[in-house]
UniProtKB/TrEMBL annotation:
One of its GO terms (molecular function) is phosphoglycerate dehydrogenase activity. This is D-3-phosphoglycerate dehydrogenase. InterPro entries: ACT-like_dom_sf, ACT_dom, AHAS_small-like_ACT, D-iso_2-hydroxyacid_DH_PdxB, D-isomer_2_OHA_DH_cat_dom, D-isomer_DH_CS, D-isomer_DH_CS1, D-isomer_DH_NAD-bd. The keyword Zinc-finger does not apply. The keyword Oxidoreductase applies. The lineage of its organism: Bacteria, Pseudomonadati, Pseudomonadota, Betaproteobacteria, Burkholderiales. The gene is serA. It is an enzyme of class 1 (oxidoreductase). SUPFAM superfamilies: ACT-like, Formate/glycerate dehydrogenase catalytic domain-like, NAD(P)-binding Rossmann-fold domains. PROSITE patterns: ACT, D_2_HYDROXYACID_DH_1, D_2_HYDROXYACID_DH_2. Catalyzes the reversible oxidation of 3-phospho-D-glycerate to 3-phosphonooxypyruvate, the first step of the phosphorylated L-serine biosynthesis pathway. Also catalyzes the reversible oxidation of 2-hydroxyglutarate to 2-oxoglutarate. Its EC number is 1.1.1.399, 1.1.1.95. Pathway: Amino-acid biosynthesis; L-serine biosynthesis; L-serine from 3-phospho-D-glycerate: step 1/3.
Length: 416
């Protein structure tokens, strides 16, 4: 496969010349899968990178794998001219400027549910721990204080769990909570099929007012930024608990700290933070650290052996499929093309601005050059078109040259 940009548009490269950069401790299963497929150039780092370090690391990368802490802005992407695709080895893709990547002809793949169960299990454990007052009692014992008491200690059975964002994780949490005898209510911007006896309420405030524990499972979007602030916390029941394992920007941490200080909330569990350390060698600071009744975890909702192994294989497979076959199925920012094998033929990939005349120009050039098109697959969105063309192997070089010089081309390449 080749990976080209308008700056260096025409290359065809064998697998061992293509470079994968995998940051943030991506599971070794991903590395093994890539190497087993002939991609021997796999560079890994246990940490997230930023600034000049990130730019240097990806300057000559053809494929990049990250998790939630590597920020890929348009400026960063502009400094990685060979980048053909990005793998987000997680669910969230808010750390990537998806539109900028699309405009640069770079599809982004993620693992939409490989860690769903892990997050749901952690949240259920936190619901039980918070309602029993365990964080506080545990902290006291670590200071040699014996707090044997039933005060503020409750069963979860019969209590109400409010879920905000009833998607993959929210629904799993709801199902598990009902197995423990909880009542489940939820708020979502979309009308959702309620699982079990869960009830969708009309508004966020209705869920806040009715719940003993509120758990957040929305993605980071402009609408969810700081969606739980002072007013929303004030609308929660006195003595209620808040869980955030979604994104750090969803909750106003100062407002949460104030509500814990005043005693309006009896506890919280927080896994995600507005600013998170880049790696395990960096220290963590938060206004929540001095509360005994807050369970703090270092963004490990999806960090289980099972989830990481499964994410590693899932996202690496998607990158391989794109590299070997051209398929963009399940890309989160790109026209999706699912493709059959192209054995015995040469496959050309062309990513272009979706403006009138591009496809006509491609077809005309092929026709004038006497190149027979064996198969053609096209998908577009409002800005970008992605066309995959199979031609006879002996026509590949001329076809690539013709295709790459069409006005409106963002990227073009041939599969090796
Ligand atoms: N803590 C962790 O380690 C961890 C792990 C996985 C995912 N996450 C986070 O959890 C989020 C949710 O994951 P998921 O797989 O359930 O996603 P999902 O897309 O399946 O579900 C998200 C739900 O939120 C709803 N929603 C969106 N905007 C909303 C709004 N303004 N108000 C109410 N509902 C809204 C959507 O309609 C959808 O039903 C991810 O985007 C990610 O940020 C965190
Ligand atoms: O593994 C990570 O860094 C992120 C986990 C989680 O937030 C996700 O979006 O899947």
């Amino acid at each position: 496969m080749s990976a080209t940009s308008s700056a260096s548009p025409r290359h065809s490269m064998p697998r061992d010349k293509l470079k994968f950069v995998l940051l943030e401790g991506i599971h070794r299963g991903a590395v093994e899968l890539l190497k087993d497929d002939g991609y021997t150039q796999v560079v890994t780092s246990p940490k997230a990178l930023a600034g000049d370090e990130l730019v240097a690391a990806i300057a000559d990368a053809h494929f990049l794998g990250i998790r939630s802490r590597t920020l890929l802005t348009d400026e960063v992407l502009a400094r990685a001219p060979k980048l053909a695709a990005i793998g987000a080895f997680c669910i969230g893709t808010n750390q990537i400027d998806l539109r900028a990547a699309m405009r640069r002809g770079i599809p982004v793949f993620n693992a939409p549910f490989s860690n769903t169960r892990s997050v749901a299990e952690l949240v259920i454990a936190e619901v039980v721990m918070l309602l029993r007052g365990i964080p506080h009692k545990n902290a006291a014992l670590h200071r040699n204080e014996w707090l044997k008491s039933a005060e503020r200690s409750f069963e979860v059975r019969g209590k109400t769990l409010g879920i905000v964002g009833y998607g993959h994780i929210g629904t799993q949490v709801g199902v598990l909570a009902e197995h423990l005898g909880m009542r489940v209510v939820f708020h979502d911007i979309e009308a959702k099929l309620s699982l079990g006896n869960a009830r969708q309420l009309a508004s966020l405030s209705a869920v806040l007012a009715e719940s003993d524990v509120v758990t957040l499972h929305v993605p980071e979007t402009p609408a969810t930024q700081w969606m739980v602030g002072q007013a929303q916390i004030a609308a929660m029941r006195p003595g209620a608990h808040l869980i955030n394992a979604s994104r750090g920007t969803v909750v106003d941490i100062e407002a949460l700290a104030a509500a814990l200080e005043s005693g309006h909330l009896h506890g919280a569990a927080v896994d995600v933070f507005p600013q998170e350390p880049k790696g395990n060698d960096t220290s963590f600071r938060s206004p929540l650290t001095h509360f005994d009744n807050v369970l703090l975890t270092p963004h490990i909702g999806g960090s289980t052996a099972e989830a990481q192994a499964s994410i590693g294989l899932e996202v690496a497979s998607k990158l391989l499929r794109y590299s070997n076959n051209g398929s963009t199925a399940t890309a989160v920012n790109f026209p999706e093309v699912t493709l059959p094998e192209h054995t015995g033929r040469c496959r050309l990939l062309h990513i272009h601005r979706n403006v009138p005349g591009v496809m006509a120009a491609v077809n005309e050039r092929f026709s004038l050059a006497g190149i027979n098109i064996a198969a053609q697959y096209l998908r577009t969105n409002d800005e970008v078109g992605y066309v995959v063309i199979d031609v006879e192997a002996d026509a590949s070089q001329v076809a690539l040259e013709q295709m790459c010089s069409v006005e409106g081309t963002i990227r073009c390449r041939t599969l090796y």
